[in-house]
Write a structure and sequence with these properties.
The protein has 236 residues and is of the alpha/beta class. 32% of the residues lie in helices and 16% in strands. Strand 4 (114-117), helix 6 (123-132) and strand 5 form a beta-alpha-beta unit.
Length: 236
């Protein structure tokens, strides 16, 4: 239960302006912490150095809560055996863990991120940029997923990005599910026009809600071999 430190990181020799620049670049609101100081000062000149409350790597949720409560603080530094910062636990982190215990997170404790692309000619370029930015899964998201363009896009994506998980849809029939599985998806997105702001039904006059997708099962025989595992249907 540690939020690991990843790039970007700064040393005490950087000035506060560097923090402001990074906050602006990554869309983080950090100026509340530094707007009372001269931004030309080094970080080491304004950071607290003495009497820091820390916890070792591997500290449990309950252990972190006790330290935070005992010391009346909201942020707990996680350090390794050499005194290097490895992570940060905050009161808000703990509250979110308790409120959303089943949140999907990676091994660093970060929420997993999915990003959608279409089937246009720039799809591979977009997918590559999203993967480089840190997306955990790519979604080929269309109103009608059981189509030649979608199946081709799935095959090309898996050919170029075999290590990236791929979800594709939307479909509402067993044949549609089978076609996407054969094309190489890791999961299938089911339901046509189920969203509150989706215009598929208005424009096309058709749709199947996620409450009425029984037609997606069973998948036709021959889609899976005895050693293959059925992808999870993503009801979104």
């Amino acid at each position: 239960m540690v939020l690991a430190v990843t790039e970007p990181t700064l040393s005490g020799l950087h000035d506060l302006q560097r923090i402001a620049d990074l906050a602006d670049h990554f869309g983080m609101d950090m100026m509340v912490c530094i707007n009372r100081w001269d931004l030309n000062q080094q970080i080491s000149q304004v950071m607290t150095k003495d009497n820091l409350v820390t916890a070792p790597v591997g500290t449990s949720l309950e252990g972190a809560k006790k330290l935070l409560h005992k010391n009346r603080i909201e942020k707990l530094l996680v350090i390794d055996d050499n005194g290097n910062l490895q992570g940060l636990i905050t009161v808000k982190d703990i509250e979110k863990m308790e409120m959303y215990p089943n949140a999907c997170k990676d091994h660093l404790g970060r929420l997993r991120v999915g990003a959608a692309i279409g089937v246009g000619p720039d799809r591979l370029e977009r997918a590559e940029a999203l993967i480089k930015a840190g997306a955990d899964v790519i979604v080929i998201d269309t109103a009608h997923g059981h189509s030649k363009d979608v199946l081709t896009a799935v095959e090309e994506h898996k050919k170029h990005f075999s290590n990236c998980q791929l979800i594709a849809g939307n479909v509402a029939t067993a044949d549609g599910v089978a076609a996407l599985i054969k094309a190489g998806v890791d999961a299938v997105k089911v339901g046509v026009g189920p969203g509150s702001i989706c215009t598929t039904r208005v424009i096309a006059g058709v749709g199947v809600t996620t409450l009425n997708i029984s037609g997606c099962n069973p998948v036709p025989k021959g889609v899976f071999t005895d050693t293959e595992r059925s992808p999870v249907a993503a009801v979104l």
